[in-house]
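User: Here's a structure from my thesis project, written as structure tokens. My advisor, Dr. K., wants to see whether a designed sequence matches the one we expressed. Can you design one independently, without my sequence as a hint?
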């Protein structure tokens, strides 16, 4: 079998490595949505943590912070938007609510952020819009 010249082998290796860059990860799907608290848009931290059928964590969580309109788009890391396909434990921490275009603190009687725990959602292939309507 003939040997490739050194430069040709390097070029082929470089092209192979480059072709892997920018490929879409098929195990990750787009996740976006919005958060409201008592009917008002909420600025909130949103966390999707993959879990197995026993409810145990199985990997890196996807996170987002919703904007002043309550909208969010999850990120798995700096290079990937979305979340792993499968079942997720969802945690939402409301930081403030937006009333009539003005930002306000979490209402009196609540210590720190509101925690919406024990939520679960299934992320499927494709686009996944989730709307979280939180109340007291």
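Assistant: Designed independently from the structure alone:
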């Amino acid at each position: 079998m003939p040997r490739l010249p050194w430069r040709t082998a390097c070029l082929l290796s470089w092209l192979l490595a480059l072709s892997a860059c920018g490929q879409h990860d098929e195990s990750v799907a787009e996740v976006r949505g919005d958060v409201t608290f008592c009917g008002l848009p909420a600025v909130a931290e949103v966390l999707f943590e993959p879990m197995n059928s026993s409810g145990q964590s199985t990997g890196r969580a996807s996170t987002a912070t919703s904007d002043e309109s309550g909208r969010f788009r999850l990120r798995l890391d700096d290079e990937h938007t979305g979340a792993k396909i499968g079942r997720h434990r969802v945690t939402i921490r409301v930081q403030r609510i937006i009333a009539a275009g003005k930002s306000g603190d979490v209402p009196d009687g609540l210590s720190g952020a509101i925690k919406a725990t024990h939520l679960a959602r299934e992320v499927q292939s494709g686009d996944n819009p989730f709307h979280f309507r939180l109340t007291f």
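When you compare it with your expressed construct, this may help: Helices lie at 6-20.
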